[in-house]
């Protein structure tokens, strides 16, 4: 799949949103990729995750375990693992910290790749990778569907994406006036209260 074909899947799913968004990192942006509009369609999800699995195989070889950060990483992690013939597990926040819960474990010697949905600053990915340091297995690298950092996010491990975009994101005290004029929404799950 070309970058344009992947982006067209997002576009035709209605997942390319414009407005004023507060991102997981606390940065503000006029653009939000609502990946759940892609993931609500299993056929569309299969197409993009098969392409991601192909890219992962090329970059890292065989994979035994895909680990993803909840919530957004769970569906693409599972679907990508299906195409890799790998297991799919996820980390979720316990007192704010990504943790392998539910009795999930990684066997000694397993070949592991982290799969994210979207990377903006890379913060969530780095938090997920930090959780994996506590567990056995060989971390081969990381992958995501869309890297919107323009290639600037540094995960500290080899990293592949299906699409690389450079989408503006601003510190909250440095918003352009046209963005500040719009009401802001925070679509993601970080810091959501029960
Ligand atoms: O690279 P970053 O700056 O960390 O931003 C990207 C992260 O933001 C979103 O997650 P979010 O925490 O909003 O919650 P979600 O997974 O429930 O959508 C997305 O799923 C990535 O995990
Ligand atoms: O940085 C984020 O939180 C983020 C950006 C984006 O475009 N989509 C998303 O789900 N999260
Ligand atoms: Mg997420």
From TrEMBL:
Task: Kindly state which reaction or reactions the protein catalyses.
Answer: orotidine 5'-phosphate + diphosphate = orotate + 5-phospho-alpha-D-ribose 1-diphosphate
Listed GO MF terms: magnesium ion binding; orotate phosphoribosyltransferase activity
Q: One Pfam family, please name it.
A: Pribosyltran
Q: Which residues form the Phosphoribosyltransferase domain?
A: 44-153
Gene3D superfamilies from the UniProt entry = 3.40.50.2020
Kindly list the positions annotated as binding orotate: 120, 148
Record's keyword terms, sorted: Glycosyltransferase, Magnesium, Pyrimidine biosynthesis, Transferase
Q: What is its EC number?
A: 2.4.2.10
Pathway the protein contributes to: Pyrimidine metabolism; UMP biosynthesis via de novo pathway; UMP from orotate: step 1/2
SUPFAM superfamilies xrefs: PRTase-like
Binding annotation for 5-phospho-alpha-D-ribose 1-diphosphate:
116-124
Q: Name one GO biological process term.
A: 'de novo' UMP biosynthetic process
InterPro entries linked: OPRT, Orotate_PRibTrfase_bac, PRTase-like, PRTase_dom
Q: Which cofactor does it need?
A: Mg(2+)
Give the similarity note: Belongs to the purine/pyrimidine phosphoribosyltransferase family. PyrE subfamily.
Q: How does it assemble?
A: Homodimer.
Q: What does this protein do?
A: Catalyzes the transfer of a ribosyl phosphate group from 5-phosphoribose 1-diphosphate to orotate, leading to the formation of orotidine monophosphate (OMP).
Q: What is this protein called?
A: Orotate phosphoribosyltransferase
Q: Which gene encodes it?
A: pyrE
């Amino acid at each position: 799949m070309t970058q344009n074909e992947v982006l067209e899947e997002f576009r035709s799913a209605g997942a390319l949103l414009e407005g004023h968004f507060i991102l997981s990192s606390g940065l503000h942006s006029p653009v939000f990729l609502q990946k759940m509009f892609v993931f609500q369609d299993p056929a569309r999800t299969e197409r993009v995750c098969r392409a991601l699995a192909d890219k992962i195989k090329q970059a890292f070889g065989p994979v035994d375990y895909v680990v993803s950060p909840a919530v957004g990483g769970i569906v693409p992690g599972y679907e990508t693992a299906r195409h890799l013939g790998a297991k799919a597990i996820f980390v979720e926040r316990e007192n704010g910290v990504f943790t392998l819960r539910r009795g999930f474990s990684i066997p000694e010697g397993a070949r592991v790749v982290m799969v994210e949905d979207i990377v903006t600053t890379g913060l969530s990915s780095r938090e997920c990778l930090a959780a994996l340091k506590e567990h056995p297995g060989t971390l081969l690298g990381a992958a995501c569907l869309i890297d919107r950092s323009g290639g600037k996010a540094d995960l500290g491990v080899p990293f592949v994406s299906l699409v690389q975009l450079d989408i503006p994101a601003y510190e909250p005290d440095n918003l352009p006036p046209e963005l500040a004029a719009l009401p802001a929404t925070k679509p993601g799950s970080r810091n959501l209260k029960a």
